[in-house]
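Continued from yesterday's entry.
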Amino acid sequence: MAFFKKKSDDKKTEREKVEERREEVLARGRKFKYPLQYAKHKVVNLTILISALAVIAAGSIVYLMLYQFQSTDDLLFRITQVVPFSVAKIDDEKVLYSDYLLIYRSTITPIEKQGMVENGQNAEDMTDYYKRQALTSAEDYTYALKLARELNITVSDSEVNDAVEKHRKAGGVERSQETFVRVLQDNFGLSLSEYKRIIYLSLISEKVSEEIDQVAKSTMINVKEYLSEGKSLKEISEILGEKVVYEETSGLVDRMNVDGGRATVAMTLEKGQTSERFVSTSGDGIYFVTLLDKTESTVNYVSLHIPFTELNTRLEAVRKENKVEERIIIEEQKNDEKPSEN
C-alpha cells in the first residue's frame, strides 16, 4: 500500500503541491486567528470606554466650573466660544455663556488693571455687581437678536468694520491696526474678533430699538415739522415736554467729546444750522444738534434727544412675566447700588 501511495504522490503536479502546502499553513494560522481577533476587539472596546469616561469627566469638570463655581478664567472662556453653552434663557431664547463672559471680562479687566479690585468682601461685591450687569446685558442683547430675526433686521460685516474703524480713530488719533489690537488686548482683554462681537450686538440692539419704537418715530416727525416752521430746539423741547431731552454744552468742548457723536456731527455744521436726525453711537436714541460756535478743535452746540424706550419696556414686561431663566445664581446688589471701587 505504501508503495502505491508513494507513486500517487509523485503524480501530483507542482501547482497541486503548492496548493496543498498553502492549505497546511492556513490551517495552522486558524488556530491563532480567533483569539487574536477577540484580543483586538477587547482593546478597541476598552479604548472607546476610556475615551468616553474621559469626555464625561472633562465635561463634568467644565460644567461644575461654569455653573457651580462660575469661573471666568481664560480657558473656560475659550471653551464656551467653541461649545455653545447657555447661561440663561429669555423668552425661550438661549443666552450664550460666551456672550456673558465676553461682556463681563471686557468690563472687569480695565478695573483690575487699574488696581481697583482688592482682596476682601468689597472685591466679591464688585465682581458680583459686574457679573450681574453682564448677565443682564447678555439677556437684553439676546432678546434684541430674537426680535431682529423676527423683523428681518441684519447687521453686515461692513457695518461692523465701519464702526470699528470709527473707534480706531476716536479722539482724533490715527492708530494703526496693530496698535489698536494691542490697546484692546491690554486695556480690555479682548481680541479684535471679540471686540467685533460686542459691536455687532450693540448695532443689532440699536437697529431693533429704532425699528420697534413707534413713539420715537412719531416724535421725530413732530420735531422735523417744528424745525420746518423755524422753531429752535429749545422751543420744540418746551412743546414736546417729557418726550424729548434738551441739553446745552454751556461752552466749547473738544470736537471728539464723548457724547454719542453729537460733537462730531456739530463740527460738520455752519453756525445756527441744525443737523438731520441721527442715532447716537451709544444707540440710546435719536438726536438733533444745532451748532452755536466752533473752532478748529472745539465746538459749542445744543441738542435734542428723543430716547428709545420701547425695547426697555418690552424687556421689563418679559421679566415681569417670569420669562427669564438663569442657570447661574448671582446675588442682586442691594438697591442696585454700584460698590465702591476705591
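--- second protein ---
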Amino acid sequence: MTRLSRRACGVQPSATLALSARAKELAAQGLPIISLVAGEPDFDTPDHAKAAAVRAIGEGFTKYTDAAGMPELRKAVVDKLARENGVAYTPSEIVISCGAKHALFNLLLALVDEGDEVLLPSPYWVSYPDMIGLAGGTTVPVPCRRPDFHLDLAALEKAITPKTRVLLLNTPNNPTGAVYTAAELAAALSLCQRHGIFAVADEIYEKLVFPGLDGSSRTFVSLATIGGKAFRDTLAVVNGCSKAYAMTGWRIGYAAGPADLMKAVGDIQSQSTSNPASISQKAALTALTEPDGAWEKRMHAAFEERRRIFRDGLLRIPGIECAEPEGAFYVFPKVSAWFGKTVAGEKIRNSADWTRLCLEKAHVAFVPGGPFGDDNHVRFSYATSKANLDETLKRLQKLFA
C-alpha cells in the first residue's frame, strides 16, 4: 500500500459530494431518488454568458492568461465591487481563481502557518475544516446563537488565543441560510482589530438574500463595505459566479484583499493551477459586465418561493424545528427529537441515521448535520423543482406520520 502523507491522510471526503454520488448510484438502479444534496442552482447559465464562451472558442482564445486572471476580468470585478458594494479596489488587489473554494484555499495557504488557529462560526460549510487543516492550521469551531444561527460575539471573543490568526465568516451562510447584519459584521471586525486577527468572508451567496417571512426587509452587506478603508489591510472577501449566475461547472471565483496578500495568493496560484480556464473567464466577464436582470429576478423569485413552501412543509412533520433561512438555498432543520426512536424498524441515533433512513425508506437524499458541525440538524438544498420539493415533503410526512 502506498505510504500517504500526513496531510493526505487527514483530509475527509466531501460529505455533500459523497452523498450526491450515492444518490446517483441508487437512481441508476431504478429507484425514484430525489436528491436535495448538491449546492448548485438548478437554473442554466445565462445565454449571453454561454455565447461569450462559444465566441472565445471560435476566436481561438484557448491559451494561457495571466496566472491571476485576465486583466479585463479583474477590472470587471473591481467595477462590480464598486457598483454593488461601494468599495474601491484596484486590479492588483484581485485574483481570479478556479472557483470560490480555490480562492479561499489560496487565501488560507497565504495566511496560515503551522499551528495557527482559525475561528470558524458553527455550523459551517463542510470543506472549511479540511481546507484549514491542509494549510497547517487548527479549526476552532465557535457555536452560533440559536435558533437564528447568527454570530455570538461573546463566544467568538472567548475563543481567541495567542495563536488565533484568522476569522472565517460565511454570509449568507451554508448550511443555515443566516445573513449576518451590518452591526454583527462591524462588531466582528472591531474584535479582529483589537486582537490582530485577519478576517476573511466567503460571500458566494451574496445574490440570494430574501425578505423575512413576516414581510420585513433584509439586505446583504459585504464585509468589505463594513471595513472600508480603515480595515482594508486586515480583511479579504471571496465571491464568484457559481451561485449568482448558475456557473458552478465553469469554476470561476475571485478574492479581493490587500495588494501584498493578493500578490502572495497569485504566486501560490501560479505554482499550482496557474490561470482559470480562459474560456470560462470570457463567460464570467460577460456575466459580470452585462448582467441579465430579468434572469436574476426569475432565479431569485423561484428560490424565495421554494424557501417558504419547503420550510412550511418541514414544520408540519412531527418533531422537526426549523429556523427561517434568510439567504442561500438551504434549510437546516433540527431533527434530534427523533434520536433514540425507532422508525420503520430502524433505530435513529444521530443525524446520519436520520438521513440514511430517509434515503432508504423515502428515497430522498440530503446531508446529515454532523459534517457541518451540528449533529442535531440536517441540510436540505431546495435548488430543485417545486414538484420535487412537494414530493419530498409527501414522502417524509408519510414516513414520520
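The mean pLDDT is 96. The two ends are 49 Å apart (CA to CA). Will compare against the first tomorrow.
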